[in-house]
Design goal:
With 53 residues, the chain is an alpha+beta fold. The protein has one domain: DNA Primase, Chain A (Alpha-Beta Complex). Strands 1-2-3 form a three-stranded antiparallel sheet. β1 and β2 form a beta hairpin. It starts with a helix and ends with a strand. The relative contact order is 0.19.
């Protein structure tokens, strides 16, 4: 399903991506980004990064 850019921008303005991802993945602040363990595979070192911009 594809959304128009205006809809995506409105969603981003209302809720940061890190807040949505943070409901499933434990995130820690790392500079301007958030990092956590990948939800796609088993790992011990965080390699999953989320940027709210």
């Amino acid at each position: 399903m594809k959304f128009p850019p205006s809809v995506l921008e409105e969603i981003k303005a209302r809720l940061p991506v890190s807040a949505v991802v943070g409901k499933r993945v434990r995130l820690a602040k790392a500079g301007r980004e958030w990092k956590g363990l990948s939800p796609f595979n088993a790992e011990k070192t965080p390699s999953f990064f989320v940027n709210d911009q």
